[in-house]
């Protein structure tokens, strides 16, 4: 297989709708729409939002609603979920929600599906109630969704209106080999959460490719890798901006979550060696630096993984700096080298 170059592959955005210190979710949504409009101009393929709950720093809990807001404020970029945590919902309700979105914004809506609760166990219980163990039904619930979306379901007693007969691409999201096997068996595209859980990334995408069974949805395996990117005009500036990302992951490791914090000069006095090591493991697929640094590091990553698409998550405190980071990334992916 011919090694891919960066300008051979698609590039996209994963927006975790991060709330920064001193701002509100309302501010976050306005910034997300502004980023989506710029991403559309800069050639990004899709703009995905993720379902999380009970997290002060993440505003996209009502994921379908935010997807509609972003799609309504843009013109051509694909908008979708990265992902909807399907065990939290009835497949029929998700079919109706995404059928509605796809009816409003034809050929622009993606449905990425995850198995995890997207939150802590207590909150998951509040969401799922008697369906607390619904994750075990994940494969069957995907099949139900596909049935609701099919034109053949028109004579069934339970139908998704709107949704029925619409071409809404379904993606399997995951951070383990279990999700890789499922995506391969179902012949669906696969998006890996390497931006926070990279440990099984290479093993999972190799399993997916080796076991992929062509389907009516997809003839060849297709892999998205989600990574963290903090780009700036100089390496020094990018390294400082990235301290906001490091502080966010320190909160995950320590259990002391905060809104996204301002960048600082150094993390040395902020985290201890254990916390730095734990955060570093989660952030293994993170790219920080200038255009030249990203060009080299991302090409090395592509040489190793041969992914079909890179999806970028960027936790950057200042909105203009965040826009600049995505602009630089787009320039790296479209450079003629």
From TrEMBL:
Q: Which SUPFAM superfamilies match?
A: Bacterial luciferase-like
The entry's cellular-component GO terms read: cytosol
Superkingdom of this protein's organism? Bacteria
Where in this chain does the record put each Luciferase-like domain? 21-298
Per UniProt, what is one GO molecular function of this protein?
oxidoreductase activity, acting on paired donors, with incorporation or reduction of molecular oxygen
The family assignment reads: To bacterial alkanal monooxygenase alpha and beta chains.
Protein name stated in the entry: Luciferase-like monooxygenase
Q: Which organism is it from?
A: Pedobacter duraquae
């Amino acid at each position: 297989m011919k090694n891919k170059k960066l300008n051979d592959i698609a590039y996209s955005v994963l927006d975790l709708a991060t709330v920064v210190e001193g701002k509100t979710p309302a501010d976050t949504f306005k910034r997300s729409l502004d980023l989506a409009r710029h991403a559309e101009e800069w050639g990004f393929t899709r703009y995905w939002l993720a379902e999380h709950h009970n997290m002060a720093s993440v505003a996209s809990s009502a994921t379908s609603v935010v997807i509609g807001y972003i799609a309504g404020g843009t013109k051509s970029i694909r908008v979708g979920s990265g992902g909807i945590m399907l065990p939290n919902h009835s497949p029929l309700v998700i079919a109706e929600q995404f059928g509605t979105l796809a009816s409003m914004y034809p050929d622009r809506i993606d449905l990425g599906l995850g198995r995890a609760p997207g939150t802590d166990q207590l909150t998951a219980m509040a969401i799922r109630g008697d369906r607390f163990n619904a994750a075990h039904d994940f494969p069957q619930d995907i099949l139900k969704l596909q049935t609701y979306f099919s034109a053949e379901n028109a004579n069934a007693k339970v139908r998704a209106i709107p949704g029925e007969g619409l071409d809404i691409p379904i993606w399997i999201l995951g951070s383990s080999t279990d999700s890789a096997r499922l995506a391969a068996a179902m012949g669906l595209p696969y998006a890996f959460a390497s931006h926070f859980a990279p440990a099984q990334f290479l093993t999972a995408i190799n399993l997916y490719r080796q076991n992929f069974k062509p389907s009516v949805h997809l003839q060849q395996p297709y892999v998205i890798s989600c990574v963290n990117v903090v780009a700036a005009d100089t390496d020094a500036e990018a390294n400082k901006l990235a301290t906001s990302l490091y502080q966010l992951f320190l909160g995950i490791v320590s259990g002391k979550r905060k809104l996204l914090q301002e960048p600082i000069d150094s993390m040395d006095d902020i985290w201890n060696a254990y916390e730095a090591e734990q955060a570093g493991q989660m952030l293994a697929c993170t790219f920080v630096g200038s255009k030249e640094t990203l060009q080299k590091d991302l090409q090395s990553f592509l040489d190793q993984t041969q992914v079909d698409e890179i999806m970028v998550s960027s936790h950057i405190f200042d909105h203009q700096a965040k826009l600049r980071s995505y602009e630089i990334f787009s320039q790296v992916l479209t450079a003629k080298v």
